[in-house]
Amino acid sequence: MTKTIFITGASTGIGKATAKLFAAKGWNVIATMRKPEAEKELSRLNNVILLPLDVTDKEQIKQTTQKALTLGDIDVVFNNAGYALLGALEAITDEQLVRQMETNFLGVVRVTQAFIPYFRQKKAGLFITTGSSAGLMGFPVSSMYDASKWALEGWSESLSFELNEFGVGIKTIEPGLVATEIGTGSVIASHPAYETLLSKFLAATATDKTVSTAEQIADVVYQAATDGTNTLRYVCGDDAKSLYAQRLAVGDEAFREGIRQMLTGA
User: Fold this and answer.
1) Helices then strands, each counted (H, E), the chain
2) Residue 166, domain extent
3) Residue 257: inside a domain, yes or no?
4) CATH code for the domain of 30
5) Does the residue 92 lie in any domain?
6) pLDDT at residue 138 above 60?
7) How much is the pTM?
8) Averaged over 27-42, what is the pLDDT?
9) Is 213 part of any domain?
10) pLDDT tens-digit series, residues 203-217
11) Is residue 129 part of a domain?
């Protein structure tokens, strides 16, 4: 029987690569995005249906999930929509910080909440979320982005216990840097007092040679969807694996000091 995946944020990057991979693997794909009418590639695939979804719009979440469920059984929900808000906290407006949490965290929570009754009743289903290595480690000039991803970590771990009661799974993929539009699509708030720190951090990420492709991360999403395990976290990408292993090996404080020294040279 053909399986179906529902994807948020499918217009670019990891979301689009995942939609294409699952479609190629014979799955039915419901790919959602803010402007499906502008999508030219996924719309040509026979087993892909495009639906509109802005994960900050609570009413549209209800409408789109209900519409998706009328199309047939859904097996996996991939909460992928998100973006990075970078810059010193002092430079970030209240509107910007609220939108970051509304998109990256509450958007995931609300989409998941909309599907839980369906999965609970059929006693099957899987939620996969695009987290980040920034949900496992804090980085400079990324406080609100990191906050949104750390929030997903605690939320997912806690939620796993209640979902498990009904045979429903939840998993988080945690890539490091990915060569997708999340880089060029980042919102960067600048403040003269922090310009040096911001510049050093952006330079360090720009020269990282271990950046993953969206397609490599899509492979991990497919693994998570099909491996039949109850694994909660999938750290992926050479940079994320290396940094996280280093943090676990040396401890939180030594790791934090290492990051500070790398950026200050002191």
Assistant:
1) 10, 9
2) 4-237
3) no
4) 3.40.50.720
5) yes
6) yes
7) 0.95
8) 96
9) yes
10) 888 777 778 999 999
11) yes
